Batch of 2 targets.
Target 1
Amino acid sequence: MAVANELERKFAPKPTVATPANGSSVDPQRGAEERRRLRTMMLIRSFEEMTYREYTKPGQKIGGFCHLYSGQEAIAVGTSALFDKKRDYLINGYRCHGHSLALGMDPRVGFAELFGKATGCSKGKGGSMHFFDASVGNNGGHGIVGGQLPLGAGMAFAQWYKKTGGVTFTFMGDGAINQGTHNEALNLASLYKLPCIFVVENNGVAMGTQIERHSAEKDLAERGCGYNMPHRNVDGNDIDTVIAEFGKAVERGRAGEGPSYLVANTYRFRGHSMSDAMKYRTKDEMEQAKLRDPISLYEVRLREKGLLTEAQIEQMQEEISAEINSAVQQADADPHPPLEDRFEDILAEKYPYQPK
Ligand SMILES: Cc1ncc(C[n+]2csc(CCOP(=O)(O)OP(=O)(O)O)c2C)c(N)n1
């Protein structure tokens, strides 16, 4: 199956170094973790590109809004390298497929959610914007821009109150920082020294509105000023930088020193949602962005370090293609939720709400 391979290859620059032609000269254990990270980024890309195909083909089986993460993978996978599933939390906007896969969601479960099937992560009732898996601390995607920020601060409050040592990654887009919730959440999180890591995934546009047209301050890390917490820009296309910089924020949070504000600068290769002709972009801008594709950058780096061979990358691509194809087929064959369950899981049954 060539689709996923082609799409991955499309963005990949030719490696600039001579690399071993097969796995014989590479110790299979050396670099295993790095190759796993690369593989997860590739898996996310393939999942998203397959989602694009499924959404746009005749007889479309995916309904509702759908926002793809292609181009931003290093941020989610870098986060997952630091994430402790037993005590950390993650909360997100609606561009949430990549983070869920990075935390280990089975692609079949993801496609089932997109297809509205009972086996989906939200039993097929949430769709693209509501990928959740509370069992690993994934508190999901949220459709209201900026709505997740106070929730993230609240979850970090619970971690602080219960002294769990956990941290909460609260993701948002660059557009979300203009919401009032941004001010409220950052202020309280810092005032109470909550273990909240605010991550702005700055892909340069809020829908089609460039930063220059939506933020009075162009350096978005500066938007963290005034909250008495570390605030900095991070290269969001470089997974090693993401891990190093986010890692400092994790340490700070776990040590009870309070929140951090990180602006991960990146680019999205697809439109905002599925009906976006991207007229706000030039061809030149897109070409330049592809040169900094996070997957290609990491692939080249691993090759240069002798941690990856041509044979290994080809094997990964083949495995991922098979995995994604099989996930789509299985999800497609899965059942829809029974009609009588249509009002289940929609509203809290009990009022006032009784926590278990
Ligand atoms: C409160 C609210 N206002 C408007 C919208 C419509 N809307 C959906 S996405 C979006 C742009 C957000 O862009 P950004 O925060 O940069 O996130 P990205 O899509 O780049 O991940 C807008 C305005 C919404 N969902 N919620």
Target 2
Amino acid sequence: MSTTNASIENWLRSYMSDPQKNTMKELPGPAFDLPSVGFSRADDPLYAFYQKHIDPDFYRRPEQWLESVYGHAFDPANVSVISWVLPQTADTRAKSRECTDCPAMEWQMVRVHGEACNRSMAKALEEHLVSQGYEAVAPMCSPEFTWAKSEQFTLVSNWSERHTAFISGLGTFGLCDGLISHRGKAARYGSVIVHLPLEATKRPYTRYNEYCLAEKGCTACIDRCPAGAITLEGGHDKAKCQAYHKDVIAPICHERYGYDGYSVCGLCQTGVPCECGIPGR
Ligand code: SF4
Ligand code: SF4
């Protein structure tokens, strides 16, 4: 059977339909709703643009990821990126919507076990494509995936799932840095790069923040943020956000849930008009 956009999307949806894989482990129910998928080509100028914008010596274009794994050059015109959005479930969103200082335990379990599932799916898709005869790599699972401090952006990684999703037609950025897709902002993202010219998804937007209503007066994520880490003028203050995670979220998780693992906030992703769709549409 040939490998097409549709067959890859079906493969991803089938993977996430398996309750043994799509799980919060310590709580019942699935971690995510089924994914939506977008595709882009490595020769899309936005990959070079973001590399230059983020850090040309650090951030990698798609073909550079393949080159580092397979040790030879790739023509970006024949390299594609498969990008997906995994929306939080209605139950997890509803529970976190009620919270004001720290999201629900479900949200924490999605961040840990759901994200593990996201990574497993990326690795499994990489292996599936390799078994079909294509060179492929899932950057998020690669030992070469890394983070670095950045004067301009506080912290950057050498591959960004959200920027990849933007390029692949899945959505645009919100004031708080989250990506708003047609499935909303309460979501996780993932991707795999493959040496196969797939059809690129047409981006139904032209501006990086087209779906965000901040310019039309929305302040919902500002109002939701208990750390004061989002402003109309400055957008998302990553340092303040990180400090809140460390100083407030972790102790609350310990006291309220008896949970001492990796914990996150994300309150700005629920109780806002972009929570589960494109706001105003
Ligand atoms: S809550 Fe409003 S301002 Fe914040 S990201 Fe969503 S649409 Fe934009
Ligand atoms: S994750 Fe929490 S602390 Fe960070 S910006 Fe969103 S609401 Fe604020």
